[in-house]
Design brief:
Rossmann fold, 19 helices
Length: about 475
Protein backbone atom coordinates (compact mmCIF):
# COMPACT_ATOMS: atom_id res chain seq x y z
CA UNK A 1 0.00 0.00 0.00
CA UNK A 2 1.32 3.42 -0.96
CA UNK A 3 1.62 5.81 1.95
CA UNK A 4 1.39 9.58 1.67
CA UNK A 5 3.88 12.26 2.68
CA UNK A 6 3.50 16.03 2.49
CA UNK A 7 6.94 17.54 1.84
CA UNK A 8 7.06 21.22 2.85
CA UNK A 9 9.79 23.52 1.58
CA UNK A 10 10.53 27.06 0.46
CA UNK A 11 12.16 25.99 -2.81
CA UNK A 12 12.17 23.04 -5.17
CA UNK A 13 14.25 22.34 -8.28
CA UNK A 14 13.79 22.83 -11.13
CA UNK A 15 11.11 25.44 -10.37
CA UNK A 16 12.93 27.69 -7.93
CA UNK A 17 16.41 27.27 -6.50
CA UNK A 18 18.89 29.23 -4.43
CA UNK A 19 20.93 26.25 -3.15
CA UNK A 20 21.15 22.54 -2.52
CA UNK A 21 17.89 22.46 -0.54
CA UNK A 22 15.96 22.83 -3.79
CA UNK A 23 17.82 19.93 -5.41
CA UNK A 24 17.05 17.63 -2.48
CA UNK A 25 13.37 18.61 -2.30
CA UNK A 26 13.03 18.17 -6.05
CA UNK A 27 14.71 14.74 -6.04
CA UNK A 28 12.98 13.17 -3.02
CA UNK A 29 9.61 12.31 -4.65
CA UNK A 30 11.19 10.20 -7.40
CA UNK A 31 13.63 8.66 -4.91
CA UNK A 32 10.89 7.64 -2.48
CA UNK A 33 8.36 6.29 -5.00
CA UNK A 34 10.12 2.89 -5.41
CA UNK A 35 10.04 2.57 -1.61
CA UNK A 36 6.23 2.84 -1.60
CA UNK A 37 5.91 6.48 -0.50
CA UNK A 38 3.91 9.07 -2.45
CA UNK A 39 5.24 12.58 -1.87
CA UNK A 40 3.41 15.78 -2.64
CA UNK A 41 5.48 18.93 -2.32
CA UNK A 42 4.04 22.11 -0.81
CA UNK A 43 5.87 25.24 -1.99
CA UNK A 44 5.04 28.96 -2.17
CA UNK A 45 3.51 30.41 -5.32
CA UNK A 46 6.43 32.58 -6.40
CA UNK A 47 6.11 34.14 -9.88
CA UNK A 48 8.30 31.46 -11.48
CA UNK A 49 6.23 28.70 -9.90
CA UNK A 50 2.92 30.24 -10.94
CA UNK A 51 4.20 30.72 -14.49
CA UNK A 52 5.32 27.08 -14.69
CA UNK A 53 1.96 25.87 -13.38
CA UNK A 54 0.02 27.94 -15.88
CA UNK A 55 -3.65 26.99 -16.06
CA UNK A 56 -3.11 23.34 -15.31
CA UNK A 57 -3.54 23.74 -11.57
CA UNK A 58 -6.85 23.36 -9.78
CA UNK A 59 -7.80 25.01 -6.45
CA UNK A 60 -8.34 22.59 -3.58
CA UNK A 61 -8.43 24.94 -0.57
CA UNK A 62 -8.88 28.66 0.06
CA UNK A 63 -8.38 31.08 2.93
CA UNK A 64 -9.90 34.56 2.99
CA UNK A 65 -7.22 35.94 5.31
CA UNK A 66 -3.94 34.05 5.42
CA UNK A 67 -1.56 36.36 7.25
CA UNK A 68 -2.85 39.52 5.62
CA UNK A 69 -4.64 38.56 2.43
CA UNK A 70 -6.55 35.89 0.52
CA UNK A 71 -4.82 32.66 -0.49
CA UNK A 72 -5.56 29.56 -2.51
CA UNK A 73 -3.99 26.12 -2.45
CA UNK A 74 -3.50 24.84 -5.97
CA UNK A 75 -2.86 21.24 -6.98
CA UNK A 76 -0.83 20.52 -10.10
CA UNK A 77 1.68 18.19 -11.66
CA UNK A 78 4.94 19.23 -13.33
CA UNK A 79 7.02 16.39 -14.69
CA UNK A 80 7.57 13.91 -11.89
CA UNK A 81 6.51 16.43 -9.23
CA UNK A 82 3.07 16.39 -7.62
CA UNK A 83 2.75 19.92 -6.30
CA UNK A 84 0.59 21.79 -3.84
CA UNK A 85 1.25 25.48 -4.43
CA UNK A 86 0.35 28.19 -1.93
CA UNK A 87 -0.93 31.02 -4.12
CA UNK A 88 -0.82 34.03 -1.78
CA UNK A 89 0.06 37.05 -3.94
CA UNK A 90 0.40 39.42 -0.98
CA UNK A 91 3.20 37.20 0.36
CA UNK A 92 4.93 35.65 -2.65
CA UNK A 93 4.20 37.62 -5.83
CA UNK A 94 7.49 39.51 -5.76
CA UNK A 95 10.34 39.76 -8.27
CA UNK A 96 13.93 38.73 -7.64
CA UNK A 97 15.33 36.63 -4.84
CA UNK A 98 12.72 34.63 -2.94
CA UNK A 99 14.12 35.63 0.45
CA UNK A 100 15.64 39.07 -0.15
CA UNK A 101 14.27 42.44 -1.17
CA UNK A 102 15.85 44.83 -3.70
CA UNK A 103 18.11 46.15 -0.92
CA UNK A 104 19.71 42.72 -0.49
CA UNK A 105 18.19 42.30 2.98
CA UNK A 106 15.56 39.82 4.17
CA UNK A 107 12.00 40.81 3.34
CA UNK A 108 10.67 42.32 6.61
CA UNK A 109 7.64 40.02 6.53
CA UNK A 110 9.61 36.79 6.01
CA UNK A 111 8.32 35.50 9.38
CA UNK A 112 4.71 35.86 8.16
CA UNK A 113 5.48 34.59 4.65
CA UNK A 114 6.84 31.27 5.83
CA UNK A 115 4.55 31.01 8.84
CA UNK A 116 1.80 31.00 6.20
CA UNK A 117 3.51 28.08 4.47
CA UNK A 118 3.67 26.19 7.77
CA UNK A 119 0.08 27.11 8.62
CA UNK A 120 -1.14 25.73 5.31
CA UNK A 121 0.91 22.57 5.84
CA UNK A 122 -0.75 22.10 9.23
CA UNK A 123 -4.19 22.71 7.66
CA UNK A 124 -3.49 19.97 5.11
CA UNK A 125 -2.41 17.72 7.97
CA UNK A 126 -5.74 18.32 9.73
CA UNK A 127 -8.22 18.42 6.85
CA UNK A 128 -6.34 17.14 3.80
CA UNK A 129 -6.32 18.82 0.41
CA UNK A 130 -8.88 17.84 -2.20
CA UNK A 131 -9.40 14.48 -0.52
CA UNK A 132 -5.66 13.81 -0.21
CA UNK A 133 -4.61 13.37 3.45
CA UNK A 134 -0.96 12.84 4.42
CA UNK A 135 0.18 10.07 6.73
CA UNK A 136 3.32 12.09 7.53
CA UNK A 137 4.61 15.63 7.08
CA UNK A 138 8.26 16.14 6.16
CA UNK A 139 9.35 19.75 6.79
CA UNK A 140 12.57 21.24 5.48
CA UNK A 141 14.49 23.94 7.38
CA UNK A 142 13.10 26.91 9.30
CA UNK A 143 10.59 27.89 6.62
CA UNK A 144 8.53 24.81 7.61
CA UNK A 145 9.42 25.04 11.29
CA UNK A 146 6.08 26.17 12.70
CA UNK A 147 4.22 23.24 11.10
CA UNK A 148 4.33 20.89 14.13
CA UNK A 149 3.61 23.81 16.47
CA UNK A 150 0.41 24.70 14.60
CA UNK A 151 -0.57 21.02 14.48
CA UNK A 152 0.00 20.71 18.21
CA UNK A 153 -2.19 23.77 18.84
CA UNK A 154 -4.92 22.23 16.66
CA UNK A 155 -4.80 19.00 18.69
CA UNK A 156 -3.93 16.91 15.63
CA UNK A 157 -0.88 14.66 15.78
CA UNK A 158 0.06 13.87 12.22
CA UNK A 159 3.68 12.80 12.71
CA UNK A 160 6.22 15.40 11.57
CA UNK A 161 9.82 14.87 10.51
CA UNK A 162 11.96 18.03 10.45
CA UNK A 163 15.10 18.02 8.33
CA UNK A 164 17.90 20.49 9.06
CA UNK A 165 19.66 21.44 5.84
CA UNK A 166 21.60 24.30 7.43
CA UNK A 167 21.22 25.20 11.10
CA UNK A 168 22.86 28.59 10.51
CA UNK A 169 19.45 29.93 9.42
CA UNK A 170 16.87 29.68 12.19
CA UNK A 171 14.01 31.95 11.11
CA UNK A 172 14.03 34.69 13.77
CA UNK A 173 11.15 37.00 14.63
CA UNK A 174 10.65 39.51 17.45
CA UNK A 175 8.35 38.41 20.30
CA UNK A 176 5.93 41.24 19.47
CA UNK A 177 4.91 39.19 16.39
CA UNK A 178 3.51 36.29 18.46
CA UNK A 179 -0.10 37.28 17.82
CA UNK A 180 0.50 38.07 14.12
CA UNK A 181 2.14 34.68 13.67
CA UNK A 182 -0.79 32.91 15.38
CA UNK A 183 1.55 31.25 17.84
CA UNK A 184 0.51 30.06 21.32
CA UNK A 185 1.98 32.48 23.86
CA UNK A 186 2.50 29.70 26.41
CA UNK A 187 5.02 28.07 24.07
CA UNK A 188 7.26 31.15 24.09
CA UNK A 189 9.60 29.60 26.68
CA UNK A 190 13.06 28.06 26.69
CA UNK A 191 11.39 24.64 26.36
CA UNK A 192 9.40 25.93 23.38
CA UNK A 193 10.31 28.22 20.48
CA UNK A 194 11.94 31.04 22.47
CA UNK A 195 15.59 31.50 21.44
CA UNK A 196 17.61 34.07 23.39
CA UNK A 197 14.59 36.36 23.72
CA UNK A 198 13.25 36.00 20.19
CA UNK A 199 11.00 33.60 18.29
CA UNK A 200 12.84 30.92 16.30
CA UNK A 201 10.92 29.02 13.62
CA UNK A 202 13.62 26.37 13.41
CA UNK A 203 13.63 25.80 17.15
CA UNK A 204 9.85 25.39 17.04
CA UNK A 205 10.32 22.60 14.54
CA UNK A 206 13.09 20.96 16.52
CA UNK A 207 11.17 20.85 19.81
CA UNK A 208 7.73 19.97 18.40
CA UNK A 209 8.54 17.52 15.60
CA UNK A 210 8.34 13.79 16.23
CA UNK A 211 11.81 13.24 14.77
CA UNK A 212 14.68 15.27 13.37
CA UNK A 213 16.98 14.42 10.51
CA UNK A 214 19.90 16.15 8.92
CA UNK A 215 21.73 15.68 5.69
CA UNK A 216 24.82 13.69 6.67
CA UNK A 217 25.93 11.48 9.57
CA UNK A 218 28.93 13.69 10.39
CA UNK A 219 26.81 16.85 10.46
CA UNK A 220 24.40 15.09 12.85
CA UNK A 221 27.31 14.57 15.24
CA UNK A 222 28.65 18.10 14.71
CA UNK A 223 25.28 19.69 15.51
CA UNK A 224 25.52 18.44 19.09
CA UNK A 225 28.60 20.61 19.68
CA UNK A 226 28.81 24.36 20.41
CA UNK A 227 31.15 24.87 17.44
CA UNK A 228 28.51 23.79 14.93
CA UNK A 229 25.14 23.96 16.72
CA UNK A 230 24.69 27.74 16.34
CA UNK A 231 23.20 28.06 19.81
CA UNK A 232 20.82 25.13 19.29
CA UNK A 233 23.28 22.40 20.25
CA UNK A 234 21.55 21.97 23.64
CA UNK A 235 18.23 21.34 21.91
CA UNK A 236 19.90 18.86 19.56
CA UNK A 237 21.57 17.02 22.45
CA UNK A 238 18.27 16.84 24.31
CA UNK A 239 16.71 15.21 21.23
CA UNK A 240 19.71 13.06 20.31
CA UNK A 241 17.64 9.86 20.43
CA UNK A 242 15.35 11.31 17.75
CA UNK A 243 18.15 12.63 15.50
CA UNK A 244 19.05 10.84 12.25
CA UNK A 245 21.87 11.67 9.86
CA UNK A 246 20.86 10.64 6.32
CA UNK A 247 23.21 11.60 3.51
CA UNK A 248 21.81 13.49 0.55
CA UNK A 249 22.14 12.07 -2.93
CA UNK A 250 22.16 13.57 -6.41
CA UNK A 251 20.05 12.87 -9.48
CA UNK A 252 22.32 10.58 -11.51
CA UNK A 253 20.32 11.13 -14.68
CA UNK A 254 20.67 14.91 -14.54
CA UNK A 255 24.33 14.67 -13.51
CA UNK A 256 25.78 12.12 -15.92
CA UNK A 257 28.99 12.80 -17.85
CA UNK A 258 27.98 10.23 -20.47
CA UNK A 259 24.62 11.80 -21.34
CA UNK A 260 24.62 15.37 -19.96
CA UNK A 261 22.92 17.52 -22.65
CA UNK A 262 24.54 20.67 -21.27
CA UNK A 263 28.16 19.51 -21.57
CA UNK A 264 30.59 17.56 -23.76
CA UNK A 265 30.05 13.89 -23.00
CA UNK A 266 32.55 11.20 -22.01
CA UNK A 267 32.64 7.86 -20.20
CA UNK A 268 36.18 7.82 -18.78
CA UNK A 269 38.69 10.33 -17.43
CA UNK A 270 40.57 10.26 -20.74
CA UNK A 271 37.48 11.70 -22.41
CA UNK A 272 37.63 14.88 -20.32
CA UNK A 273 40.31 16.49 -22.52
CA UNK A 274 37.87 17.95 -25.05
CA UNK A 275 35.62 19.31 -22.29
CA UNK A 276 38.64 20.86 -20.57
CA UNK A 277 39.74 22.61 -23.76
CA UNK A 278 36.23 24.02 -24.19
CA UNK A 279 36.20 25.25 -20.59
CA UNK A 280 39.58 26.95 -20.95
CA UNK A 281 38.30 28.72 -24.05
CA UNK A 282 35.03 29.70 -22.30
CA UNK A 283 36.96 31.42 -19.49
CA UNK A 284 39.80 32.70 -21.69
CA UNK A 285 42.39 30.77 -19.68
CA UNK A 286 46.00 30.24 -20.71
CA UNK A 287 47.36 26.69 -20.68
CA UNK A 288 48.70 25.67 -17.29
CA UNK A 289 51.19 22.93 -16.38
CA UNK A 290 49.09 22.00 -13.36
CA UNK A 291 45.42 21.16 -12.74
CA UNK A 292 42.48 23.34 -13.75
CA UNK A 293 40.45 23.66 -10.54
CA UNK A 294 36.86 24.87 -10.55
CA UNK A 295 34.69 26.56 -7.94
CA UNK A 296 30.90 26.59 -8.33
CA UNK A 297 29.57 28.13 -5.15
CA UNK A 298 27.99 30.91 -3.21
CA UNK A 299 30.84 33.27 -2.37
CA UNK A 300 30.76 33.29 1.42
CA UNK A 301 33.15 32.77 4.31
CA UNK A 302 31.16 29.66 5.27
CA UNK A 303 32.35 28.12 2.00
CA UNK A 304 35.96 28.92 2.94
CA UNK A 305 36.47 31.03 -0.15
CA UNK A 306 38.30 33.75 1.76
CA UNK A 307 40.83 31.03 2.59
CA UNK A 308 41.08 30.12 -1.09
CA UNK A 309 41.83 33.74 -1.99
CA UNK A 310 44.75 33.65 0.45
CA UNK A 311 45.98 30.26 -0.86
CA UNK A 312 45.51 31.09 -4.54
CA UNK A 313 48.92 32.69 -5.23
CA UNK A 314 50.77 29.58 -4.04
CA UNK A 315 48.49 27.36 -6.14
CA UNK A 316 49.18 29.46 -9.25
CA UNK A 317 52.92 29.39 -8.52
CA UNK A 318 52.69 25.58 -8.41
CA UNK A 319 51.21 25.58 -11.91
CA UNK A 320 47.49 25.49 -11.16
CA UNK A 321 44.62 27.37 -12.81
CA UNK A 322 41.17 28.37 -11.54
CA UNK A 323 37.73 28.87 -13.10
CA UNK A 324 35.12 30.27 -10.70
CA UNK A 325 31.37 30.69 -11.04
CA UNK A 326 29.43 32.23 -8.16
CA UNK A 327 27.97 35.24 -6.45
CA UNK A 328 27.84 36.42 -2.87
CA UNK A 329 29.85 38.66 -0.58
CA UNK A 330 31.05 41.81 -2.32
CA UNK A 331 34.58 41.57 -0.98
CA UNK A 332 34.95 38.02 -2.29
CA UNK A 333 33.50 38.93 -5.69
CA UNK A 334 35.99 41.81 -5.86
CA UNK A 335 38.89 39.66 -4.63
CA UNK A 336 38.45 36.93 -7.22
CA UNK A 337 37.76 39.45 -9.99
CA UNK A 338 41.04 41.19 -9.13
CA UNK A 339 42.85 37.83 -9.15
CA UNK A 340 41.53 37.21 -12.68
CA UNK A 341 42.81 40.60 -13.78
CA UNK A 342 46.27 39.77 -12.43
CA UNK A 343 46.58 36.29 -13.94
CA UNK A 344 45.61 34.74 -17.26
CA UNK A 345 45.20 31.42 -15.43
CA UNK A 346 42.26 32.68 -13.35
CA UNK A 347 38.80 33.12 -14.87
CA UNK A 348 35.77 34.43 -12.96
CA UNK A 349 32.09 34.74 -13.80
CA UNK A 350 29.98 36.47 -11.17
CA UNK A 351 26.42 35.14 -11.09
CA UNK A 352 24.96 31.71 -11.70
CA UNK A 353 24.52 29.76 -14.93
CA UNK A 354 23.19 26.20 -14.71
CA UNK A 355 24.51 25.12 -18.12
CA UNK A 356 27.95 26.58 -17.41
CA UNK A 357 28.10 24.76 -14.07
CA UNK A 358 27.67 21.43 -15.91
CA UNK A 359 30.38 22.41 -18.40
CA UNK A 360 32.71 23.24 -15.52
CA UNK A 361 32.24 19.86 -13.85
CA UNK A 362 32.85 18.17 -17.19
CA UNK A 363 35.98 20.17 -18.01
CA UNK A 364 37.63 20.73 -14.64
CA UNK A 365 40.43 18.58 -13.28
CA UNK A 366 39.41 19.28 -9.68
CA UNK A 367 36.62 20.99 -7.74
CA UNK A 368 37.45 22.98 -4.60
CA UNK A 369 35.08 22.90 -1.60
CA UNK A 370 37.12 24.23 1.38
CA UNK A 371 34.08 24.96 3.59
CA UNK A 372 34.33 25.88 7.26
CA UNK A 373 31.19 23.79 7.73
CA UNK A 374 29.08 21.94 5.19
CA UNK A 375 25.93 20.07 6.24
CA UNK A 376 26.15 17.76 3.23
CA UNK A 377 27.30 19.42 0.05
CA UNK A 378 26.33 18.30 -3.43
CA UNK A 379 29.20 19.95 -5.30
CA UNK A 380 31.73 17.31 -4.30
CA UNK A 381 29.29 14.59 -5.43
CA UNK A 382 28.99 16.22 -8.85
CA UNK A 383 32.80 16.25 -8.93
CA UNK A 384 33.01 12.55 -8.11
CA UNK A 385 30.43 11.73 -10.77
CA UNK A 386 32.37 13.63 -13.46
CA UNK A 387 35.85 12.45 -12.49
CA UNK A 388 36.65 15.98 -11.30
CA UNK A 389 38.75 15.34 -8.21
CA UNK A 390 37.18 16.99 -5.14
CA UNK A 391 39.40 18.85 -2.70
CA UNK A 392 37.26 19.30 0.42
CA UNK A 393 37.43 20.24 4.08
CA UNK A 394 36.95 17.49 6.66
CA UNK A 395 33.49 18.52 7.86
CA UNK A 396 29.85 17.41 7.51
CA UNK A 397 28.91 15.56 4.35
CA UNK A 398 32.25 16.39 2.75
CA UNK A 399 33.91 14.07 5.27
CA UNK A 400 31.27 11.40 4.56
CA UNK A 401 31.69 11.35 0.78
CA UNK A 402 35.38 11.84 -0.08
CA UNK A 403 38.21 9.39 0.72
CA UNK A 404 41.50 11.25 1.17
CA UNK A 405 44.34 10.37 -1.19
CA UNK A 406 46.78 9.68 1.62
CA UNK A 407 49.50 7.05 1.21
CA UNK A 408 47.40 4.24 2.66
CA UNK A 409 44.36 5.01 0.51
CA UNK A 410 46.49 5.37 -2.62
CA UNK A 411 48.21 2.04 -1.96
CA UNK A 412 44.85 0.38 -1.35
CA UNK A 413 43.46 1.95 -4.52
CA UNK A 414 40.43 3.50 -2.81
CA UNK A 415 41.19 7.26 -2.76
CA UNK A 416 38.63 9.57 -4.39
CA UNK A 417 39.89 13.07 -3.53
CA UNK A 418 41.87 15.25 -1.17
CA UNK A 419 40.72 16.19 2.33
CA UNK A 420 42.07 19.15 4.34
CA UNK A 421 41.42 20.62 7.78
CA UNK A 422 38.54 23.15 7.82
CA UNK A 423 39.22 26.81 8.44
CA UNK A 424 43.02 26.74 7.94
CA UNK A 425 44.88 28.42 5.10
CA UNK A 426 48.02 26.35 5.71
CA UNK A 427 46.11 23.09 5.38
CA UNK A 428 44.36 24.31 2.22
CA UNK A 429 47.71 25.37 0.71
CA UNK A 430 49.15 21.95 1.50
CA UNK A 431 46.10 20.27 -0.03
CA UNK A 432 46.49 22.30 -3.22
CA UNK A 433 50.14 21.26 -3.39
CA UNK A 434 49.05 17.61 -2.99
CA UNK A 435 46.52 18.17 -5.78
CA UNK A 436 49.27 19.43 -8.09
CA UNK A 437 51.46 16.43 -7.20
CA UNK A 438 48.59 14.02 -7.84
CA UNK A 439 47.84 15.67 -11.19
CA UNK A 440 51.47 15.21 -12.28
CA UNK A 441 51.17 11.46 -11.58
CA UNK A 442 48.95 10.62 -14.54
CA UNK A 443 48.31 6.93 -13.70
CA UNK A 444 47.66 7.74 -10.03
CA UNK A 445 45.36 10.66 -10.87
CA UNK A 446 43.41 8.58 -13.39
CA UNK A 447 42.89 5.90 -10.75
CA UNK A 448 41.51 8.48 -8.29
CA UNK A 449 39.22 9.86 -11.00
CA UNK A 450 37.94 6.39 -11.89
CA UNK A 451 37.29 5.65 -8.22
CA UNK A 452 35.24 8.84 -7.96
CA UNK A 453 33.19 8.04 -11.04
CA UNK A 454 32.29 4.65 -9.53
CA UNK A 455 31.53 6.03 -6.06
CA UNK A 456 27.81 5.73 -5.12
CA UNK A 457 26.32 9.23 -5.07
CA UNK A 458 22.67 8.50 -5.97
CA UNK A 459 19.59 8.33 -3.77
CA UNK A 460 19.09 4.56 -3.48
CA UNK A 461 20.70 3.98 -0.08
CA UNK A 462 19.41 7.23 1.42
CA UNK A 463 15.88 6.55 0.15
CA UNK A 464 15.92 3.24 2.02
CA UNK A 465 17.00 5.07 5.18
CA UNK A 466 14.22 7.64 4.78
CA UNK A 467 11.69 4.90 4.10
CA UNK A 468 12.66 3.12 7.31
CA UNK A 469 12.34 6.38 9.27
CA UNK A 470 8.99 7.22 7.66
CA UNK A 471 7.71 3.74 8.52
CA UNK A 472 8.91 4.11 12.12
CA UNK A 473 7.07 7.45 12.48
CA UNK A 474 3.81 6.25 10.96
CA UNK A 475 3.73 2.93 12.83
Amino acid sequence: MTRRVLSVASECAPLVKTGGLADVVGALPAAMAPEGWELRTLIPGYPAVMKALGKRAKPVLSDDDLFGGPAWLLSGKLGALDLLVLDAPHLFDRPGNIYLGPDGKDWPDNPERFAALSYMAASIGVDGAGGWVPDLIHGHDWQAGFTPTYLRAAGRRVPVLMTIHNIAFNGPAPPERLFQLRLPRERFTSEGFEFYGIISALKAGLVDADAISTVSPTYARELKTPDYGMGLDGVIRARAADLHGILNGIDEEVWSPATDPLAINYKSPRGKAKAKAALQKRFGLADAPGPLAIVVSRLTDQKGLDLLLDALPAFLDAGGALALLGTGAGELEAGFTAAAQRSDRVGVQIGYDEALSHQMFAGGDAVLVPSRFEPCGLTQMYGLRYGTVPLVARTGGLADTVIDANDAALRAGVATGIVVAPGRVDSLEEGLQRLCALYSDTPGCTRVQRNGMKHPVGWAASARDYAALYAQLTG
